[in-house]
Amino acid sequence: MTKRLTIAFIKARWHAAIVDQALEGFIDELKATGSDVHLVTYDVPGAFEMPLLAQKLAECGKFDAIVAAALVVDGGIYRHEFVAQAVVSGLMDAQLKTGVPMFSVSLTPHNFQPTNEHVSFFSQHFRKKGAEAAQAVLGVASIDLSKEIGVPGGQPAEAAEKPAAKAPAKKK
Q: Distance between terminal CA atoms of the chain?
């Protein structure tokens, strides 16, 4: 990968101190790899708002990848699984529609309480997931789509589909 990447990083503001750790881990990993990137961050109120913004950013044509981070917890009013599924499905739909890769750092713990122990654990976990997202972005960006697609061993697919020509039978 030689091209400078432009990456959008969307952060939901619920539990912002925890979610921001994903961005920190992302940045730390990019620095550790020496990657040349232009990173633009966006804040949205909650996780539910991320897919639409991600799609709009992808459609503008300025971004090579989009990362979305949120901590979706059970607030007692609605099931957090519904929100988490809607976010992941929305990001998947947006990337398939636009062709811009999207990466989710959206976590949905079963039992989150804003205690020091949970905040510390999830802050560390988000930092780790942010680093993993950076690795994923760089990995996808490094895929060479100009290569001829073939079969194992480097043989072009067309050659693999054709049966080998038989040698003429020897005369006795």
A: 59
Q: Measured on CA atoms in the order 88, 92, 97, 98, is the torsion positive or negative?
A: positive
Domain map (residue ranges) of the chain? 5-146
C-alpha separations of 24 from 32, 68, 69, 81, 89 in Å:
12, 13, 12, 26, 25
Please tell me the pTM assigned to this model.
0.80
* Structural fold of domain 5-146: Rossmann fold (3.40.50)
Angle formed by the axes of helices 50-59 and 80-98, to 10°? 10
pLDDT at 95: 95
Q: Which residues are catalytic?
A: 79
In the block, tokens 């993993």 appear at 132
